[in-house]
Design a protein that fits this description.
This protein is mainly α. About 65% of the residues lie in helices and about 0% in strands. The protein has 17 helices and no strands. α2 packs across α4 (about 95-105), α2 crosses α9 (about 175-185) and α12 (about 245-260) runs antiparallel to α13.
């Protein structure tokens, strides 16, 4: 479940904190990195268990309503939702039950939130349409939970606040973890029964090693990487760069130099997206041009042995941009070598295709890094 997109995000956060907190103990910082990644996996299991908690609450409601209706001579309430085939399978899942038992995690202390969520579910059109439909098969049962999750759990301010109170590590994790929960729902197979596999914490040991190696390279070679930034910036006003931008580029350079199987374009795309999320509005464009210039500088000096695409031919727009000044003191600037900055970032699928692409491709460009991914 912990993919390289999440790893990069955590390393950006932990590297920034490493320089801000003053202690600069790399061993402790590395332990903090691995702990924060494991907490993301805790959240994945905890959100899956929320579906179980809702089903258990709805079961109690149906039982109480059944007793009352029987006393008043009314019809028995429908049990369709509480015997939802996907939810029942999830309740019986051995991996989820074992994980929650080991971690001592449950929703028992947050029954008020679970009840509130049940009320919202019962009032939703998705629930009403499901209960009114004569269709009763596994696919329909799984699909109703996929819809309910996206509509009422994925973007839920009360849930966000509750999770933040439980763990500071979960502040920025939920958005990406949601995509993995939805992916898990879609992958459930009734034939697997309680043995259905959940997503593993790490796909393989290479990803765990990727986290350690990238973080250590970023910290231990900081002065060298920042020198590359200065050499490549030339006429750009490097001194006015936001500190978060420096951190992001430092990590990107570490990845460029230490992971030969990851293409340059993948690395640049990943950290441009990071800048858009965590830095200034203009940082994405600036970092895009800077990283392209730095990568070319490293190739030209023999420090980076990766192929780079040729620079595009200049056009009228590029000429006008150079004449009008580029990114200097907040504006776009040419690189100082007579050539315009080349912007290589391409939007991820989720930027152009919406939430559906997020669900179908939660790993984004990271999946293109190496043949095994």
């Amino acid at each position: 479940m912990i993919n390289r997109e999440l790893i990069r995000t955590k390393i950006v956060q932990l590297t920034y904190a490493y320089y801000q907190n003053g202690s600069k103990n790399i061993e402790n910082a590395e332990k903090e990195l691995l702990l924060s990644l494991s907490k993301a996996y805790d959240l994945y299991n905890y959100l899956l268990d929320l579906i179980v908690a809702v089903t258990q609450e709805e079961t109690q409601r149906v039982e109480q309503l059944s007793v009352r209706n029987k006393r008043e001579g009314k019809d028995e309430p429908s049990t369709k939702f509480i015997f939802n085939k996907f939810a029942v399978q999830l309740q019986e899942n051995k991996a989820l039950n074992s994980f929650n038992e080991d971690k001592n995690m449950s929703w028992n202390d947050d029954k008020d939130f679970v009840r509130s969520l049940c009320n919202k579910i019962e009032q939703s059109d998705t629930y009403k349409e499901y209960m009114a439909s004569p269709q009763s098969d596994y696919e329909a049962d799984r699909e109703v939970w996929r819809k309910l999750y996206r509509q009422l759990i994925e973007d839920n301010a009360d849930l966000d606040q509750l999770l933040e109170e439980k763990s500071l590590y979960w502040n920025d994790d939920k958005e990406v973890v949601d995509t993995f929960v939805l992916k898990t729902i879609k992958r459930f197979d009734p034939k697997e029964r309680g043995n259905q596999e959940l997503l593993p914490e790490y796909k393989d040991e290479d990803d765990r090693e990727f986290a350690r190696k990238l973080f250590r390279a970023t910290i231990l070679n900081a002065n060298e990487y920042q020198r590359y930034m200065s050499e490549a910036s030339r006429n750009w006003d490097f001194s006015r760069l936001a500190y978060m931008d420096i951190v992001i580029m430092q990590i990107a350079i570490a990845e460029l130099l230490n992971f030969p199987n990851i293409p340059v374009s993948v690395t640049i795309n990943e950290y441009v997206d990071m800048a858009k999320r965590y830095s200034t509005p203009r940082s994405g464009g600036y970092i895009n041009g800077m990283l392209d210039a730095i990568a070319r500088h490293l190739v030209d000096t023999g420090k980076l042995l990766k192929p780079m695409p040729p620079r595009p031919e200049r056009n009228n727009y590029a000429d006008r941009r150079q004449q009008n000044g580029g990114y200097q003191n907040g504006n776009y600037q040419n690189e100082g070598n007579g050539r315009p900055v080349r912007f290589v970032h391409k939007p991820k699928p989720e930027e152009t295709e919406g939430k559906q692409a997020e669900e179908e491709q939660p790993q984004s460009n990271a999946s293109q890094e190496e043949p095994k991914e």
